[in-house]
Every structure is written in structure tokens, then in C-alpha cells.
Amino acid sequence: MVSNTLKRQTPATEDKILSLENIGLYYSRRQGILKRSRFWALKDVSFDLYTGETLGVIGRNGVGKSTLLRVLAGIVAPDTGRVVVHRPGLRISLISIGAGFVGHLSGRENAILSGMMLGAKKEEILSRMDQIMAFADLGSFFDEPVNTYSTGMRARLGFSAAYYLDPDVILLDEVLGVGDEAFRIKSTDAMKERIKSEKTVVLVSHTVPLIRELCDRLVWIEGGKTMAHGDVADVLDAYLSGAGQGRPPSK
Ligand SMILES: Nc1ncnc2c1ncn2[C@@H]1O[C@H](COP(=O)(O)OP(=O)(O)OP(=O)(O)O)[C@@H](O)[C@H]1O
After folding, report:
1. Domain boundaries along the sequence of the chain
2. Mind telling me which Pfam families this protein's record contains (predicted)?
3. What is the 67 CA–ligand 1 centroid distance (Å)?
4. ipTM of the predicted structure?
5. Per-residue pLDDT tens for 200-249?
6. Minimal CA–CA distance to 162: which of 128, 122, 197, 121?
7. Residue 207 CA to chain centroid, in angstroms?
């Protein structure tokens, strides 16, 4: 097992905006007809998030990365441990495929809903609607129910709404690699701009070059636990040296 005390580029303590302390979360799974069992998707995850940084999260399929972002976004509460928010009123937005849309509402209505859930006023959201609509580039589908959208179209809407509603923290769950080529380039470029402009971003990705390019620090999750965190090159070396590759997730 790799130490979780690899060299860290730790930013100043006063810039800490959020801390995860020993987070654990289980899903209830059906076992046979009557029995249910607890499956601990997260067992012990701890790290801090600092203002203006881009924190990468890496790990094999099924190790708990999306679950972790849902905890960070406040969509689900952890069963053990705690999330400490150091800035009251912090606005956090999760961008992931299929997350948070109401299927029978249109793209426009969902954009309004997303903004209101972030605490924005309706006028503020409406003032940005033209930008959201132009970036999503969904044509007349923008006013059609979201349950008529393809996966790529949902990604376009989710990214555009969250991008222009400008939360304090953006959580990206594998969305920079989705959509068609044109949208992939456009959204990745837009996010790079945000990252340069000191936005706080948590990026879950399997794309190593993207992590190397965009992240300031990296967290490696394995079997629901923090295996290592800190310097991007060090954590990637540990992850890619074999320990993080090829095997199915441990249950
Ligand atoms: N609603 C659910 N009910 C039961 N188990 C679930 C549920 N959602 C996720 N899991 C399980 O929890 C574990 C963690 O899932 P999660 O989606 O967080 O992993 P991940 O690291 O994001 O995976 P990937 O890289 O494939 O996207 C997996 O084993 C998954 O099967």
C-alpha cells in the first residue's frame, strides 16, 4: 500500500474552504428476496479543498468517485464522518451526465431550477439565459423536455447551466470528455479559462493528460478510501505504477 503522506503542495490554511473528515457512505443492496445488505461505497475519505485550486480525483471504475462528488455537492449525506464547510453560503455545483435534471421540464426550465438550487435569484438566472442557451447550442430542443435529450445533449445543458450560473465550486464528473468533438473542445477550453481565473474545481477524470494539464493537486481513491493525496506527479506515479490498474474494485 502506498503512503498517503506523499509530498503535498499545501496551500495556506486560511484558504481552506471545505474539509472532508473520514467520510463513509453505504448503499443498501438487495440480497435475495427479503434480505438487504450494506455496501460501503466510501469507507474513509479525508482531504481539504482550497480556494482557487483544481483538485483532481483519480481511481479505477467503481471505487467511489461519483459518490464522493455527490457528498461534496450536498446531494447525499455521509453515514460516517463529516463535511466541514469553512465558508458559509458556499455555492457548489455538480456537473455530471444525467445529474439533477427533471425529465418532464424543458432545458430552459431545468436551467432555472439549477440556478435556484444554487441560491441564485430568478432575475439573475434569466439575465444569463441567452448565454446558457448559446453555449449549449441545442436549438429548439432547449424548450423541449429533457427526457427527449441524448446523453450528449444532457451534458451540453448541464455544463452550460452550471458554467454560466458561476458557483463558487464546480464539481466535474467525467464531463470534459463527453459530447461531440466540437462541444468537447469548446467545454474543455471554457473550463480551462475558469481554472486559470482562480475558480475552485474538483475534477474526476480517467484522462491522465487532462489531469496533468489542469490539476494543482490530486487525490487517489481506492476501495472507498484515500490512498494518496498531494502532488499530481507523485500521486499519478503511485497510481500508474500498478496499484491502481487493471483489477476490479474490492468489495
Ligand atoms: N444506488 C446505488 N446502489 C447500490 N450501489 C451503488 C449505487 N450507486 C453506486 N453504487 C456502487 O458504489 C460503488 C461506487 O460507485 P461510484 O459510481 O461512486 O464509483 P466511481 O468511482 O465513480 O466509478 P466510475 O469510475 O465507473 O464512474 C460501486 O461499486 C457502485 O456499484
Report:
1. 101-165
2. ABC_tran
3. 7
4. 0.96
5. 999 998 889 989 988 999 999 999 999 999 999 999 999 998 655 544 43
6. 128
7. 14
| 42 φ, ψ (degrees, to nearest 5) | -120, 135
**Closest Cα to atom 4 of ligand 1:** 27
User: 153 phi and psi, to 5 degrees?
Assistant: -70, -40
> For residue 60, which atom of ligand 1 is closest to its CA?
25
Would you mind telling me the total number of residues written for the chain in this entry? 251
Would you place residue 80 in the very low, low, confident or very high pLDDT band (cuts 50, 70, 90)? very high
CA of 47 to the centre of ligand 1 (A): 20
